[in-house]
Amino acid sequence: MKPTILTIYLSLLSFCLAAQTETDTTIYNIADVMPYPLLKRCIPERNPGWNGNADSIRRCAETQLFTILAHNIRYPNEARTNNLQGSVVVSCIVEPSNGRISNLKLLKDIGGGCGEEALRVLKALDEAGLRWQPGMLSGKPVRVRHALPIRFRLQEALPYYVSLEGDTIYTQYDISADFKGGLDSLLGFLVNKLDYPTEWADSCKTGVIEMATVVKTDGSLKVVNQLDFNNLGMDFQFEALRLARRSAGLWIPAEYLEQKVATTLPLRVVFKSDRERCALINSKFDQAMLLADEGATLLEQEKPEEAIQKWSEALALNPDNCELLYYRGTAHMNQDRREEACKDYNRVKQLLGITWFEEIRRLVCGF
Asked: What pLDDT, on a 0 to 100 scale, did the predictor assign at position 189?
């Protein structure tokens, strides 16, 4: 249930336009200042060297917009099958009253569904909250027809990437990495070999730590990152790392073209104290996790309101679960409820001090 690229990488910016005493409904093809999308990364306050230069702002905004479009284009199967590439040109009218775009039309299409896909993405961006600085003529905002070229280019992706640590990590493989003995053996290992920190046994702390790992070609496991969703602390994080180290030699590496390759694998461990006094807290945690799973299922069924309700019920039982806060916040973003989303996102920041989605949080909610 990851959030979509469309939702995560949009920067929504509220703005007001001065009221006009007379409404000019003329559609202009040329203006003194042409319209451009309002993206927070390109506002003058974040770029003091521009000194309010409209050309610099517009160039930045257009570059960011094309990046957003590229990330959200779904290359149509028909175009891919027929090796269709090139530029689709879409025209639209930027409305000065609300900064939205209207009257989307195809000026140039390369076929294979590419034109329809370009229109879909632009409509989706508008509905998600992307607004435009309208064109200006003689110092007044006016309706301007604007053309957007959207490039479709087929690229054959490499089956791997090189990490910052220099590891070659495969994203494509014929046989995935696995734990010796399969899933049941892995679950048994995680339950039986994970140690709850003794000095915290009476604290009744419960929570999940997720580790981003690499299963290497020799069957060893390398932990590259940890997410302590319940802010359990260093002692719990250490035990999670120690468990991962204990699994060395128990992994079967992935294979690509009959060669062993390194791949990434998420590994989640759950901490619950076995002290009798912790039974009620453990029970609430288990109920919260079941509700969270129900929420994820509802979201997959395209029932976002019901999913949000399930996550809210789960958070009532486990209030500071940052993973649930993130899921609910992202669902709020998908429903165009930025204020509610930022409450959840900023709560994660408050609890953890850092977030694994900080760039997105800043774009959506500010610093």
From this structure: 94
Q: Into which CATH architecture does domain 280-365 fall?
A: Alpha Horseshoe (1.25)
Closest C-alpha to 270, from 184, 195, 357, 351: 195
Query: In angstroms, rounded to a whole number, what is the distance separating the alpha carbons of residues 242 and 235?
Result: 11
What is 160-274's CATH superfamily?
Answer: TonB (3.30.2420.10)
Rounded distance between C-alpha atoms, residue 341 and residue 319, angstroms: 16
- Burial of 33-63, coded b for 16+ CB within 10 Å and e otherwise, reads bbbbbbbbebbeeeeeebeeeeeebbebbbe
Is pLDDT of 181 > 80?
Answer: yes
CA-wise closest residue to 347 among 50, 262, 328, 334: 328
CA distance 3 to 227: 17
Q: Which residue has the tokens 């979509």?
A: 4
Helix (H, G, I), strand (E, B) or coil at 76: coil
Least confident segment among 58-67, 247-256, 335-344: 58-67
Neighbours of 328 (CB within 10 A): 27
CA 160 to CA 355: how far, in whole Å? Answer: 27
Q: Which of 110, 106, 118, 108 is nearest to 85 (CA)?
A: 110
Assign domain 5-152 one CATH number from 1.25.40, 3.30.310, 3.30.1150, 3.20.20. 3.30.1150
Q: What pLDDT, on a 0 to 100 scale, did the predictor assign at position 42?
A: 79
Mean pLDDT of 1-10: 42
As a whole number of angstroms, the distance between CA 256 and CA 268 comes to 25
Give CA torsion, residues 183, 184, 187, 189, to 10 deg: -110
Burial of 256 (0-12, 13-18, 19+ CB in 10 A): middle
